[in-house]
Amino acid sequence: MNPIVFGLLNIVGILLALVIGAALLTWIERRLLGFWQDRRGPNRVGPFGSLQVVADMIKILFKQDWIPPFADPVVFVLAPAVVMVTTLMAFAVVPVTASIGIAGDMNIGVLFFLAMTSLSAYSVVLAGWASNNKYSLLGGMRAAAQMVSYEVFMGLALLGVVMLSGSFSLAAIVRAQSGLWFVVPQFLGFVVFVIAGIAETHRLPFDLPEGENELGAGFHTEYSSMKFGMFFVGEYIGIVLISAMIAVLFFGGWQGPLLPPIVWFALKTGVFVGFFILLRAALPRPRYDQLMAYGWKLMLPLSLLNVALTGAVMLTHW
Amino acid sequence: MNITFYLAATIAVLATVMVITRANGVHALLYLVVSLLAIALVFYSLGAPFAAALEVIVYAGAIMVLFVFVVMMLNLGEIAAVREAQWMAPRIWIGPSILSLILTAQLAYMLVSNEIGNTGRAVVDARAVGLALYGPYLLCVELASMLLLAALVGAYRLAETGRSGVIKGGH
Lengths: 318, 171
Hints:
Chain A is mainly alpha-helical. Chain A has helices spanning 3-36, 52-62, 73-90, 109-130, 134-165, 170-176, 187-200, 212-215, 225-250, 261-282, 288-317.
């Protein structure tokens, strides 16, 4: 096939799969939560409630799109776009399979992913500031501190994988795992990465930027209609991104026996998306100071220890 | 490659001018983020992908978020914007402008007369950066780390709380 056509198909395919998948996830999450909490969840619209997404979409698009008169209008509109753009951009470096994926072989793939997740912090911070509302501001400040701190541990947790594979390219990292998944030699790094990933996507139990019981809805209190919808869908795309990265970095990406590579990739990603939802159903929210102390006093030493141990083992055994 | 470079460089210059002329703190910071992203692209087009990635992760992604954080905490609002606008009087900006115009003229002269050093366009990847940092420049890395340690200890002392929870150092 013509490489340009193939490239375009790749981009459009991945984009559509992500946005539709993220929208479907809103329904899957509510069904799964219902299952785990011993209730039914949305089951009225369509077979098993699967058309709930369509109903929600129609509802959210027809709601009044209100920009508060006391808000900073430009930044207020910009904020929800930032989360969508940065998380979708990060997928550019995710190698879905050896041939599918936009720039899986990029020589700074891991760093590009980190750069995009660190930029996505702006969406929450700016939304909190631009809303000009005390609850939003508190949510935005919490988000800024939480995301900047957990980015550090996320980057450090990845270093072990980069050291073992000797490359920042995600496709090369997947190929380096053909013998053994990195989750075995890098178990500590895996645990730190998952926890930091939850904090980066500000999902429960680390959803303090929007903690409903104390902050209304936190940073998106003032948002309505499709602007709120973009935060909502952006959060789910973030979950898919972190899950896909866990699969790529620690579980051999597309590699696996019998089934075609794309099925393996989707399966592995799906398992971690399910894990994210299970965490929401299972764990209570910590206090804010507990979250920060936990990060700096436990996660940071653990991730540094991981880097030091990996280096020591590599020096003695290679 | 040249088009990317000049486009990114133009955006960087324009965004930086906007940083200086904005009266609203957060708006200025947002332009500064754009400027840093453009600089990252300049690095990338000159064959330094590692430096480009670090520029985005460290400057645009972490340091600027902390700047926005501080501006948010101060909650400056309208009064500060008005005061800031008054500071942009001609007698304030004319001095620095003349100085930077001289620098710009020098830069333009060097570009025209081809006295500029050859960048070589060889790709400097993460491995090359690491080898340089921990080889010939090891002493600089150690000195920088000592400086950062001193800053860390200083920050800790300033925010240290006793058993009563009252900040000790901040008076």
